């Protein structure tokens, strides 16, 4: 993923992630902390979420001084909440943290579960970017995944969002779906070409243990494309999206006119971010934290004025260097050796020289002055490339 050396995009400010773990209908492949039919707990959860944000700011005053330039509402389905509930969360963030005037506010949504009036309300609240979990425009595939929308719902949701003022619109697309064909991939790309979107995230279907999909595949009820077909689909998606004028700026993410997901870049560029809500993760002041995934245990901890953290890890310098390298390589900007030396007070090549040489020899990465970034082949085998830094 070659980059223009004069087009470096480096972030330093903090992001905030808000997890809303509720959904109308859980997809068979979903492994995220997401729960359906829990409407009776919405108010309890909202109270706990607001309290957690306030508690963290009180306990870690430094978090209140850092500039916040991205806020991301994920799930689950954040748009399960009312506009009034979302406004309460936004007000709590702005009251407790140093939010930049040009902060990018993103919210995830499922097509078919929002109407034009609701989208208008979201934009009025200050959300400047919206991400729709489309996954595919094939109705048969959507039914097999237990998605709650159809093709027309997805198209209308995107058009309504654009009409109501959203200039930054993302859609998620998945390839390698049960019984999916390459013809479906082409038809998805044809529809994409007609939509007013400037960002696409695309992923191969992951069969996670414990999901309904895992059990159905294990029992032979559902069949997936073979490895060769999925490789073909990967190539079609990667090239097809770029042919539509999108820039591949991260292994799975594409943007027009530099309309990057600034919040996700926090993760890839090793910035601080605070995560609030059940199952949310944080990285702040060299400490990674993970909250309890379950709604009521999470809320009960907050009610006792305790943090709902179930995992906490202080990141030492070795782990920090490893994380920085493999996260940076996910993006088109790759590893910036000057930035690496500034952060860690040591040259990249002094630690990883032999690994870098080996990956260059295998045509998996390229060196361009003080930058190292993935080749197209390296992007296709990213997990192997990343593992080389972790095992050092």
Mean of pLDDT = 94
Query: How far apart lie the N and C ends?
Result: 24 Å
Please list the strands of the largest sheet in the order they lie side by side.
9-10-8-7-6-5-4-1-11
Helical residue percent?
Answer: 40-55%
Shape: globular
Q: What is the total domain count? A: 2
Provide the CATH top-level class of the largest domain: Alpha Beta
- Unreliable spans: none
- The helix-and-strand class reads alpha/beta
**Percent of residues in β-strands:** 15-25%
Structure description:
The protein has 392 residues and is α/β, with parallel strands linked by helices. It has 2 domains: 14-268, TIM Barrel; 317-390, Arc Repressor Mutant, subunit A (Orthogonal Bundle). It contains 16 helices and 17 strands. The protein has helices at 42-59, 62-65, 83-96, 116-125, 139-144, 151-163, 182-192, 212-218, 227-243, 262-268, 295-303, 317-329, 337-344, 348-361, 376-380, 382-390, and strands at residues 14-20, 22-23, 35-36, 67-75, 98-109, 129-135, 168-175, 199-204, 247-250, 253-255, 273-276, 281-284, 287-291, 309-314, 335-336, 365-368, 371-374. It has a 9-stranded mixed beta sheet with strand order 9-10-8-7-6-5-4-1-11, sandwiched between helices. It has a 3-stranded antiparallel beta sheet with strand order 12-13-14, with no helix packed on it. Strand 4 (67-75), helix 3 and strand 5 form a beta-alpha-beta unit. It is globular and about 55 Å long. The protein starts with 13 loop residues before the first strand and ends with a helix.
